[in-house]
Amino acid sequence: MFFFLHNNHTHFFFTIFRWLFLLETINLTHSQEIFTAEIVLSNPGTQFVPAVMSAQFISTALTNSAVKCAMLCTANILCRVYDYEVLTPKQCRLFEGDTNTLGQIVSSSSPQSVVGAVQLSPDLFAEYGSPCSSFCFHSRYLQCGNNFTCKCMPHTYWDPSISICLPQSPILGGSCQQNMTMCREDINYTCLQFNQCGRKLHECF
């Protein structure tokens, strides 16, 4: 796993030797996979507030540093946002979603807390729609579909206008388009008649 932390235009590059040392100190969800992630850090004293906590919260763990919290997020294919030391010391919280439409970064009562968000770019999804290859099988951002072509990971949908798999919305009444799976299907949301996410009402006969 390789990742890059961005904060105030400063780049921290961790070599493979440093990573192998740190790997022994934490239990990673997908330690056998090679993932790449670019993390954008918020200013200290902030926390992430998801739009729907019950649908976007993944897990919490205790780690010794914000760097290890970033590693836990990178190792979990569903994680797009994390925060560190918001509620208690050494607490790492992982979330689905983003910091734009499915949550926000707000001030925290903890001055050392920080938020990290996975930065996405079209390059990460260049294999979308292509026949499954070793890249697709070992990608953090794409998976092999039933038709043996690369598709978006669970809880994300393909946006052809920007060539990126974006998070599906868990927001009841959230905006959507009929020709995209923009609503969280795992909680039985679909794009309804007026382009809003919700559950279909079954007619009674």
Question: Keywords for this structure?
Answer:
seven-stranded mixed β-sheet; 205 residues; two-stranded antiparallel sheet; Hepatocyte Growth Factor; alpha+beta
Describe the structure.
By secondary structure, the protein is of the alpha+beta class. The chain has a domain at 2-118: 3-Layer(bba) Sandwich (Hepatocyte Growth Factor). The protein contains four helices and 15 strands. A seven-stranded mixed sheet has the order 2-1-3-9-6-7-5. A two-stranded antiparallel sheet has the order 4-8. A hairpin with a 4-residue loop joins strand 12 (156-159) and strand 13 (164-167). The relative contact order is 0.14.
Number of discrete helical segments: 4
SSE pattern: EEHEEHEHEEEEHEEEEEE
Q: Which shape, going by the Cα principal axes?
A: globular
The CATH class of the domain at 2-118: Alpha Beta
Strand content: 25-35%
- Provide the residue-averaged pLDDT: 84
Low-confidence stretches are 8-33
Can you name the CATH architecture of the domain at 2-118?
Answer: 3-Layer(bba) Sandwich
Q: Quick one: how many beta strands?
A: 15
Largest sheet: 7 strands, mixed
How much helicity do the residues have? 10-25%
